[in-house]
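Retro notes - structure team

What went well: the batch runner handled both jobs without manual restarts.
What didn't: labels got mixed up in the shared folder, which is why I'm recording both outputs here explicitly, each with its sequence directly above its tokens.

Job 1
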Amino acid sequence: MAHDKLFLKSFRKELRDSLTPAEAKLWTYLQNSKLDGRKFRRQHSVESYILDFYCPAEKLAVELDGEVHNIQRQSERDHERDLFLLYYGIKVLRFENRIVFENPNYLLNSIKGEFGKQPFRPAGTSTWKYPGAGYPPKIVCGKPPRQTASATP
């Protein structure tokens, strides 16, 4: 599996130079190893996919999704991409853009909660294997807990 393919270099730089507001805000929390000393990269490529943020030490990708990701076709593409990355041992966390602004502590704690966890890999194997019947494990999706409104007497 190839990381940071040369033919994507200029496109990755263009993406880094034009971050969305949510990506720019999250980067302020992740840059310079601010999150538990883990180094993250912006717009890192794995094969032909470009990840919003990637922590090589944890093999963890963080993706921020806008409204377009709610469309069924895009959602299917995201799922295929996540399965491809998971096959190579990279866990993908997805968050809606708004979470960066509305609940940054939840987002950062969700990311930190994945530190030290490794994808399932049977003992003695050097390549990724899906557990049980060839089906991949459930993709972790970052969604904030539901807040219930309390009734006032």
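Job 2
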Amino acid sequence: MLNFMPQPILVGLLIAVGAIGFVLWRSRQKDTNYIRLEEGDLLIAQAKIEAQAKLDRFVRLMSENPDDNFSVKVAFPNSEDSTEHIWVESLKPGSLEEEWSGVLCNKPVALKGKKIGSPVVFPQSDIEDWMVMKEDGSYEGGFSIPAVMRNQA
């Protein structure tokens, strides 16, 4: 019987090969932070209409409940001549005339020079959704969630 290598080395080699295989496999999986939605998606359009119509409630909740977590989804034009939809938090609300500001809380895919935590400014008209995560774990808003969940299936 030939013994090619000691058993501990063989086990270590098999573990290393398995780990490398897993890393390569995982790198080919789709980015779960990024979901492609079709331009003109009806549910997304309806979500934006509802979010914009109820934006005054969102601003009121921000002032009434400062301990809750507030975020808005914003449409940003990107370098690929399309639009990237990213959640923004640490908000300073504006108005129809004044820009809003905050920081990105999703990893941008095609926004040059931006990353999670990058400061951004945007007009109120680019807000597509809003969400309030309350201290008790419930939320309000999130009008685009049904469309996103449908597209993940």
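One thing worth noting from job 2: The CA atoms of residues 48 and 148 lie 13 Å apart.
We'll revisit the folder naming next retro.
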